Amino acid sequence: MSHHFPAVLFLLPLFAAISMPVICLKHPDWSRPIALVVLSTMVLISIPNLNNVIHHGEVRYAFSGWAPPLGIEWVADVLASIILVALSLLGWVALVFAGPLSPKALGGRIVHFYTLILLLVSALTGIVFAGDLFNLFVFLEVAALSSYALIGVAGGRALFAAFRYLILGTLGASFYLLGVSYFYVASGTLNMADMAEKLPHLLHSKAVVGGLLFMFIGLGIKMALVPFHSWLPDAYTQAPESVSPILAALVTKVALVGWVRIIFWVLGARVIVYDIPVLLLVGVLGTLAAVIGAVLALTQRDIKMMFAYGGISHVGIILIGVSQGNQTGFVGGVFYLLNDAVMQAALFFWAGVAIFQYGVRTVEDIGRIGKQDLWLIGTLIVVAMGMIGLPPTGGFFGKWYIILGALEANNYVAVGAILLSTLLTLAYFVRLFEAIFRQTPSQSDIQPDEIPLSFKLSLGVTSAAVIILGLLSDPIVQLLLNKALPPGL
Amino acid sequence: MGEVFTALLSRPNFLAFVILFLWGFYIMVTRFNLVKKLVGMYLVQTSVIFFLVSSSAKRGATVPVLLSTTDPVEAINYTNPLPHVLTLTAVVVGVATLGVALALCAAIYRTYGSLDEEDILKRLE
Question: In the beta sheet, which residues pair with residue A191?
C-alpha cells in the first residue's frame, strides 16, 4: 500500500482539479471545502510517505507497471518526500488564508481559483517526484500555466504582469526542452537514473555541454535567478493577495529542486566540463543573485515588491549552499530552502493582511498599522528575524550551515556575499520597522475591524514554523545528512 | 571559423532550427504589439519541436512499423519513434500556452483598449 503513496499524492489533486469545474458548476461554494479536503488528505498522506521512505528506503514507482527506462518513473527519495511535506502543508495554509479574501480579491471567480490552485499543487508534486527529464518539462509547464492564469485571474493590472511572465516563462521552457533534446540526442535516454550511468562517458561531447547550458538558462528563468529575474517582482506584486503567497513560497523553490536533481543526481556532483566545474558556475551566479536581489529589495517602496526581491536574493543564498560541493553546504542549502518557502509564505500573508485590513501598499503607508496590532507586529518581528537570520529561527541555522560549508571549501567570496546580503536584509527590515514605530498619533485613529480568524491562523502557523524549524534544526539536518545526500557527495 | 561553417552546412536541420529560433526571439524582443510577441514565442517553441523531430530522421529508414515479424529487428531500418511522441506532448503544451496567452491578450484588450505595449504601459502609470 505505502509504495502507492507518491502516485496518489500526485493523482489526487490532479483529478480533483479536473472534476472541480463540473462538480462546482451549480454550487460554487463547494469549491473551497473540496480543495481544503484534498490538501488535508495530501498532508495526511505525505507524512506517512516521508516516514515510509526514511525507514524503508526510496520508492521507485513505475506507472502502469512499465519498467524504466522505457516507462514513466516516479522517484520518491527522502529529499523529495521532505519537500512534499512542506509543499502540502504550505498549500493547505495558503488555502486557509485565501478563504475570507477570495470572493473580494478574485472578483467572484472562486471556482477558477481553487481549480487552478489544485492544478498548481499537482504539477509541483510532479516536478518534485519526476524521474525523467521530459516529465520534468511537462510539469514545469503545467505549473507555469496555472501560475499565469492564477496571476491574471482577477483581471486589472495583473493581466499585463501575467503576460510578461508568460512570454519569459515560455522562453525558459523552450530553452529547457532544447537542453533535454540535446541530452536525448547525445545519450538516447530520458530517464534520470539511466542517463546518470551514460553521461560520464559523454562529458566531452559538445551536445551535452550545450544542453546543460540551455537547461540551466531555462530553469534559471523559472527559478528567477538574477539575470533572468525580471518577470518575478511585477507578477507577484500585481497578483491577487490570495495568490501571491503560494506562488512565492513554492514555484521558484520547486524549480530550484529540479535543478538540484539534474546537477547532483543526473550529472554527479563533481562534474567538470571543459575545465569549468559546473558547481562553480552555479555558485558564482548564486553569489551575484544573493547580493543584487538584496540591494534591489532595499530600494523598493512597495512592500510586496520588497518581499519579492528578498525572495530573489534567497534563491541566490540557496544556490551558494548547494554549490559548495561538500555535505555541509548541500544540507544547509536544502534546509534553507525549506525555511525560505515558509518565510516567503509568511511575508506575503503579512502583506496580504496589511493590504486587506489597512490598505497599506507602500513603506510610507505602513505607519497606519497601529502599534497595538499585536498579531501583525509580532509576526513581522518573528519573520524578520528569520529573514535576517537571527537565532533561534530556522533562517539562522540554514545560513550557519551554508557558511560552514563555504568555509570548508575555502570559498570566502561566498561567505562575504552571504554576510553582505544579511546586512542588506537587516537594512530593509529596519526601514519597515522604522516606518511602523514612527507613526504619528493622527495616523493611528483608524480603528480597523477585527482580523479574521483565518488570517490569524495562517500568520501564526507560518511564524511559529519559522521558530520551530530553528528549534528542530538539529534533527532535520541530521536526517538530511544521513538520508538525503546525493550519490558521490 | 571555416570548420564551424562546414559543420553547420552538413547539418541543414540544425541550421534551419537556429534560424527559426533566432527569428522568433528577434520578433519577441523587438515588437511592441502583444500578438506579434506571441507569434515570435510560437516560432521559438516550434523551432525547438522541429529540432527534436528532425533528430529522429535517418537516411533510408522507414516508419517504425515492423516490416517482417520473422526477421530479427534492425534498428537502422526504422526512424526513431520516441522524438515524435515527445513532440506530440510538447505541441500540446505549446497549444495550451498559446491558449492561455490569447485569453490574457483578450482580457488585456478589454481592460486597456489596446494591444500595444507602450500604450498599456502609459495607461498603467
Answer: A132
E strands in A356-403: none
User: Residue A30 — pLDDT band, cuts 50, 70, 90?
Assistant: confident
**Positive or negative torsion for Cα A335, A341, A346, A347:** positive
| Residue-averaged pLDDT of chain A | 87
Tell me if A163 and B41 make a contact (CB, 8 A cut-off). no
Q: What are phi and psi of A375, to 5 degrees?
A: -60, -50
Which residue of A135, A178, A191, A217 to mutate against B (max B Cβ within 10 Å)?
A178
Rounded to whole angstroms, how far apart are CA atoms A303 and A299? 11
Sign, CA torsion A382/A384/A386/A392: negative
Whether A67 has a pLDDT exceeding 60, the answer reads: yes
ipTM value, please give it.
Answer: 0.93
Size of interface A-B (CB pairs under 8 A): 77
Per-residue pLDDT, averaged over A290-295, amounts to 92
Residue A162 has pLDDT above 80, yes or no: yes
- Tell me, what's the pLDDT at B42? 93
- The Cα–Cα gap between A163 and A234 comes to 11
Q: Average pLDDT in the A10-38 region?
A: 89
Give the residue from chain B lying closest to A148, CA to CA: B100
B8–chain A Cβ distance below 8 A for any pair? no
Classify each residue of B71-98 as buried b or exposed e, where b means 16 or more C-beta atoms within 10 Å of its C-beta.
eeeeeeebbbebbeebbeebeebbeebb
Q: pLDDT-derived band of residue A449, with 50, 70 and 90 as boundaries?
A: low
A74/chain B closest Cα distance in angstroms: 18
Name which of A271, A287, A288 is nearest A279 in CA terms.
A271
C-alpha cell at B93: 503544451
pLDDT at position A266 over 60: yes
Higher pLDDT, B59 or A257: A257
Question: What is the model's pLDDT at position A440?
Answer: 59
Residue A191: phi, psi to the nearest 5?
Answer: -65, 135
3-state secondary structure of A446: coil
Cβ contact, residue pair A171, B44, below 8 Å = yes
Cell digits for B22? Answer: 533566432
Given a contact cutoff of 8 angstroms between Cβ atoms, the answer to whether A457 and A96 are in contact is yes
C-beta of residue B51 within 8 angstroms of C-beta of residue A181:
yes
Which residue bears the cell 552538413?
B10
Question: Helix %, strand %, coil % for chain B, to 5?
Answer: 70, 5, 25
| A177-235 tens-digit pLDDT | 999 999 998 888 888 888 888 888 887 788 888 888 899 999 999 999 888 888 899 89
Among A478, A328, A476, A484, residue whose Cα is nearest residue A411: A328
CB-nearest to A177 from B25, B90, B96 is: B90
The radius of gyration of chain A from alpha carbons, rounded to an integer in Å, stands at: 22
If you write DSSP's letter for every residue of A81-127 in order, what string do you get?
HHHHHHHHHHHHHHHHHHHHHHHHHTTT-HHHHHHHHHHHHHHHHHH
Backbone angles phi, psi at A276, to 5 degrees: -110, 115
Name the packing angle between helices A110-129 and A31-56 (round to 10°). 10
The SS3 call for residue A455 is helix
CB contact under 8 Å between A177 and B101, yes or no, is: no
Q: What integer is the mean pLDDT of A426-436?
A: 87
